[in-house]
Amino acid sequence: MTGLETKLRALRDGGRKLVVPYLMAATTPGWTEYLLAAEAGGADAIEVGIPFSDPSMDGVVIQRAGELALGRGANPFGILAELRGISLGIPMLVMTYYNLFYRAGLDRMAGMLAEAGVEGVILPDLPLEEAGPWIEAASPGIATVQLISPITEGERLARVVAASEGFVYGVGLMGITGERLKLAETATGVARRIKAVSDKVVCVGVGVSSPEQAAEVVAAGSDGVVVGSALVRRVLEGARPQVIEEFVGGLRSAVDRG
Amino acid sequence: MSVMGHPDPTGRFGEFGGRFVPEPLMPAVIELERTFEEAWADPAFRDEYHRILREYAGRPTPLYHARRLSESLGVDLWLKREDLAHTGSHKINNVIGQALLAQRLGKTRLIAETGAGQHGVATATAAALFGLECQVFMGEVDVKRQALNVFRMQLLGAEVVPVSSGSRTLKDAVNEAMRNWVSCLETSHYCIGSVMGPHPYPYIVREFQRVVGEEASIQFEAATGKSPEWVVACVGGGSNAAGTFAGFVDSSARLVGVEPEGGAAIGRGVVGVVHGMESMFLQDEFGQVEEAQSISAGLDYPGVGPEHAHLAAIGRASYESVSDAEVLDAVRILARSEGIIPALESAHAVAWVIRERERFGDGDSVLVTLSGRGDKDAETIANATGAGL
């Protein structure tokens, strides 16, 4: 069991619902303040996006944030160096696309992530079938989280869930990241289907945008939620860290109320 | 595994290929693979595919001996005339096959990416022929420089969606098509236009383009009693080259793929994983994909199909590049010596033959696939040569 899984299981088994905010790195000069703000707002873990030129799983908000970061000259090594410089009391994960790891070299990237204090990664374009070389480089220090979609089923569902480290990421809808006015029905179903085959920690993201939607997801049985675009949009609109803290705090109270 | 045979169980040609798609797309590409394998092994499917190509798309296309140009270059030059296929390029071969697959999958809608618009026009055409809905993603930059093809797609009943992200060219159109596909898997088949993307696409598209090389091989043999010593085709993603090479890979012909200088993924790229495949890409030291720069919108792509990366790695094909200026010269030379205005994409292959004419031995024959016609490029060529329109 990876360190990340141990920590998240302990929280879950203690009765806590998990709030996992996503923030794109390097969108502003002081971007790491947003991570600290998210922690202060009550986050249990945090996902840091490393920008990629071709984010095929992301909607417009995260695309724009990535373009902004790249336009500011951001690169993976600089971002990890900045992460090394901050002190967070909650686990950090990196979410990005596989080519950045491939280009850096898998062992080298795994080493740099560990040095930066990153405990897990989410690579949406690296399905389980292709993940072998990376997992070999990363394991056991860095957890590789697998995605389960609303249409992953049968033997495949069991196999991918079993391989997931840290937690299982339930994709809330058939689509890309972004805010939706209404929570998709699939967002509640996916958590139930994962729970039916495993006792691993399950967090549902993609299309979970508001405290109300977060509450709905955990009420349906998910152990937690991942919220990204709703936060990133606020950052793009120039929100101060205080706004991020308050928004995460809103998610916190909503899932705590259940 | 024979060269240009079936990819391995992970969808690889040697080290290249694979299936790097988000989990939500996985069931769709697995279903597509199974459906294609069944269909391609089904004589009735193949008969239907070849019947449509024959009756509707104008196959077989001619193999033409370019006598005047041969004489002036001192090279025995033959042109496989895909420019004479319906819709003006080889792209029709692939979309007829994929539209038949879409029907077999029970899908009612095709989505596609396009660069120059040739694949978009071909997809819109197949959609009209089969009574399917059609949505084509096209970078904003390409929408501007290929306005004629945008109108053709609309006339055929397709919706053209301009893509404003990233470099606003072909690679971004691919991203947007993939983003869209995941939200409409139940109704829609993603009709990829080249030998690229996640497995099984590079294999499917090569098989649907194989007809180009197989016809050319038979035609050349019938005309000359031998095999060509050189087989040349342009390479962006590489579908016309893959189809052409498939017909000659077991012969002794030297296979040459011609990339644009500003988009030479094999010439200048490094191995990476983008658009669902492990292949060669133009990218920076951090793995960010770079923008290709080519006068030809259809070759303006920073990657290349994985099978080409494999053919290069094992030395079965070589990949060289030509400049925009050489391409424009080739257009003019072919137009004036043979009365054929080639697409800018196809002119890359002709330009390479013109530049390298001293390399061919006495008695060597060179077969070039002329993948498309140049009508769509008239304005680009006029602007580039200062003629204006």
Biggest interface, residues from each chain:
A-B, 42 and 36 residues
Strand line-up of the largest beta sheet of chain B: 3-4-14-9-10-13
Q: Strand-and-helix sequence of chain A, N→C? A: HEHEHHEHHEHEHEHEHEHH
Number of beta strands of chain B: 14
Distance between the terminal alpha carbons of chain A, to the nearest Å? 28 Å
Mean pLDDT of chain B: 96
Measure the end-to-end span of chain B. 52 Å
Mean pLDDT of chain A: 97
CATH topology of the largest domain in chain B: Rossmann fold
Order of helices and strands of chain B: EEHHEHEHEHEHHEHEHEHEHEEHEHHEH
Helix share of residues of chain A? 40-55%
The strands making up the biggest β-sheet of chain A line up spatially as 1-2-3-4-5-6-7-8
Largest sheet of chain A: 8 strands, parallel, barrel
How is the CATH topology of chain A named? Answer: TIM Barrel
Oligomer: heterodimer
What does it look like?
An eight-stranded parallel β-barrel of chain A has the order 1-2-3-4-5-6-7-8, surrounded by nine helices. In chain A, helix 8 (154-163) links the parallel strand 5 (143-148) and strand 6 (168-171). Chain A is of the alpha/beta class. Chain A is globular. Chain A has a single domain, classed as TIM Barrel (Alpha-Beta Barrel). Chain A has helices spanning 3-13, 32-40, 60-71, 76-84, 98-104, 106-115, 132-138, 154-163, 185-195, 211-219, 229-236, 241-257, and strands spanning 18-24, 46-49, 92-95, 118-122, 143-148, 168-171, 202-205, 224-227. Chain B has two domains: 13-52 and 91-201, Rossmann fold (3-Layer(aba) Sandwich); 60-89 and 210-384, Rossmann fold. In chain B, 43% of the residues lie in helices and 17% in strands. In chain B, the strands form four sheets. A six-stranded mixed beta sheet of chain B has the order 3-4-14-9-10-13, with helices on both faces. The longest helix of chain B has 24 residues, at 201-224. Chain B starts with 11 loop residues before the first strand and ends in a 5-residue tail after the last helix.
